[in-house]
Amino acid sequence: MIQECLIHENRHLKGRFYILTLKDSQIAEKAQPGQFLHIQVQSSIQPLLRRPFSIYRLRDSFVDILYEVIGEGTHILSLRSKGEYINCHGPLGNCFSDDLSGKHPVLVGGGIGIAPLLFFGERLLEKSHTMELILGYRSEDDVIGLEDFNQSGMNVEVTTNDGSYGYKGFVTDLLKDQLHKDHKVFACGPIPMLKAVSDLCSQHEVPCDVSIHNFMGCGFGVCLGCVFPSHKGYQRVCKDGPVFNASHLIF
Amino acid sequence: MDLRTDIGKILLKNPVMVASGTFGYGVEFEGFFDLGLLGGISVKGLHLNKRQGNAPQRIMETPCGMLNAIGLQGIGIEAFSREKMPVLRKYDVPIIVNFWGTSTEEYEKAVEKLNDVEGIAGLEVNVSCPNIKEGGMTFGTDPKVLSQLIRSIRKKTALPLMVKLSPNVTSVGEMGHIVESEGVDSISLINTFAAMMIDVETRKPVLSNGVGGLSGPGIRPIAVKMVWEVAQRVKIPVIGMGGIMNARDALEFMIAGASAVQIGTANFVNPRISLEVIEGIKDYCLNHEIEDVKSLIGSLKMP
After folding, report:
1. Taking the alpha carbons of A119, A124, A126, A129 in that order, is the dihedral positive or negative?
2. CA dihedral over A133, A136, A137, A141, signed as positive or negative
3. Number of H helices, E strands in chain A
4. What is the pLDDT of residues B269-292, one digit of tens each?
5. Of the four, A118, B12, B87, B105, which is 20 to 30 A from A95 by CA?
6. Which residue of A46, A214, A221 is in closest CB contact with B28?
7. Can you tell me the distance from the alpha carbon of B104 to that of B48, in angstroms, rounded to the nearest whole number?
């Protein structure tokens, strides 16, 4: 589905972080937790490619995208205004499975990688699952989204690398003390964090699904630009993922 | 109004094809539009065997373009013939199979296999991929090697033969002349420019392959000039490509001398772009009272 979507709001949160709210009932109806939108930040040949963003939250026909201004594309996105239309392709990719097979879910997010976990956490709550939630950030300046998770009724444990907010250390420092055979971990964040979480889970024989972020060309499986190595050859993050069983990947 | 054009022995219902490497095996685009509306499809470059391609990182955006070093990841000719061709055969659209090898023998074996695949309209010899260590572009940049390779391929097949030229040469016109002398039916150009990006923090190349191929609208004017150069040197049809984003871009190539065009990188941004280009060419012809699109080919008025 490729369409012009109405920007309902493009709200600055703090520092480099924003929430873009699109009003689009078709996307809101179709989207599943873990999927992404491939957004053309402006209709121009510069920047040329779309940018992939996880869906952060759905509210009726509103679709929220939590994003961090990193480069030119996200900078242009941050300048877009309410009432304008923006070209979106999606929802794309696979999704987090809410079939837990009796396991207790533990959600682990790092930095902007917390984005798909709110949507997924809300889906789990709808299905009457309780969960553990650990979110890690570099420092207090990067701590975002907590009020949204709390408002939805999720209890969050927070870590920062420098200890400026919450527990001082990495998400894995908290995770390793809690991990239990009956758990299933769902993680999204920077690759080194996902590798650490995945290693920890395999040591404890806990199943782990990770959502991978990568540069993308097309976003629908054609250009083969966003592949990630796995035991079954290269996997397309956009089409075979972004959610993978961590034990299948080669970090 | 007549939008038909021909590229050697292949008749196209309109001049808009899609370029190899940007349209998968065609079937990936079934959900976006009726593939039968296209002038032609050039499928992802095939090797005799399955190829896993280069290690990530494979792509990076550039000013008005992108750099890629996919490394010709592909399912191989047999799997293509078994899994993709039955789907493609349902559509009334010429299927051009882009193929490559790392040696003359591999090219020859590939041709022999492709000769037996039902429903292929023509072959596009890839001698211009800058992203593989052996073969690929090396065949397309040395005139002697190129002419010998094309001669051996020509002997192996009666299928219409298109050669996709590399822009990474001193005289692309000369390369066009060489392949025409070896009896090919048409020439497509350009493949990507060999290019490089460096991460100044790590001082490493951005792509794991070191270098990659540059494509997109940023290279279009160079591509137009090269198509113009080749079209003047050869009598066989030329298929122009390089950064086409809309109908006006496509028309530039035709006026420069291309009988047809291929849409490449733009497919990634807008999978329906080819249809928009076809419609735009139609509108242009209407507005300019052009009854036959072929009359545009090489109609450049040099000052």
Report:
1. negative
2. positive
3. 6, 16
4. 999 999 999 999 999 999 999 999
5. B87
6. A221
7. 12
So what's the pLDDT on residue B137?
72
Structure tokens at A104: 């207790």
Task: Check residue B128 and give its pLDDT.
Answer: 81
**A104-211 is a CATH 3.40.50.620 domain:** no
Q: Are B64 and B217 in contact (CB under 8 A)?
A: yes
Measured between CA atoms, how close is B203 to chain A, in angstroms? 19
pLDDT tens for B71-130 read 999 999 999 999 999 999 999 999 999 999 999 999 999 999 999 999 999 999 999 876
- Of the candidates A22, A145, A32, A133, which has an alpha carbon nearest to the alpha carbon of residue A88? A22
Cβ separation of B55 and A229 shorter than 8 Å? yes
Token reading at A169: 């250390």
State which amino acid sits at residue B76.
G
Q: How far is B220 from B252, CA to CA, in rounded Å?
A: 10
C-alpha–C-alpha distance, residues B196 and A140, integer Å? 37
Answer for the pair A171, A117: CB distance below 8 angstroms, yes or no.
Answer: no
The pLDDT value recorded for residue B132 is 65
Task: Please state the domain extents for chain A.
Answer: 2-92, 104-211
Q: Using alpha carbons only, give the angle B211, B25, A229 rounded to the nearest 5 degrees.
A: 50
Angle value at C-alpha A161, between A159 and A165, nearest 5 degrees: 50
Confidence band of A183 (pLDDT split at 50, 70, 90): very high
Annotated catalytic residue, options B43, B75, B96, B129: B129
* Assigned CATH topology for domain B5-296: TIM Barrel (3.20.20)
| Domain A2-92, architecture per CATH | Beta Barrel (2.40)
Q: What is the DSSP letter of B292?
A: B
**Whole-number Å distance between alpha carbons of A172 and B133:** 40
B27, B35, B58, best to mutate vs chain A, most A CBs in 10 Å: B58
Q: Which residues of B50-67 are buried (b: 16+ CB within 10 A; e: fewer)?
A: ebebbebbbbbbbebbbb
Environment class of residue B230 by beta-carbon count within 10 Å: exposed (0-12), middle (13-18) or buried (19+)?
Answer: buried
For chain A, the helix, strand and coil percentages under 3-state DSSP, each to the nearest 5: 25, 35, 40
**Is the peptide bond prior to B167 cis by the omega test (within 30 degrees of 0)?**
no
The per-residue pLDDT for range A151-161, each reduced to its tens digit, is 999 999 999 99
A48, A50, A227: residue with CB nearest B65: A48
SS3 label, residue B51: strand
Q: What is the mean pLDDT of chain A?
A: 97
Q: Is residue B129 annotated as a catalytic residue, yes or no?
A: yes
Model confidence pLDDT, tens digit, residues B154-194: 999 999 999 999 999 999 999 999 999 999 999 999 999 99
CA distance to partner chain B, nearest, from residue A225 (Å):
5
The DSSP call for residue B57 is P
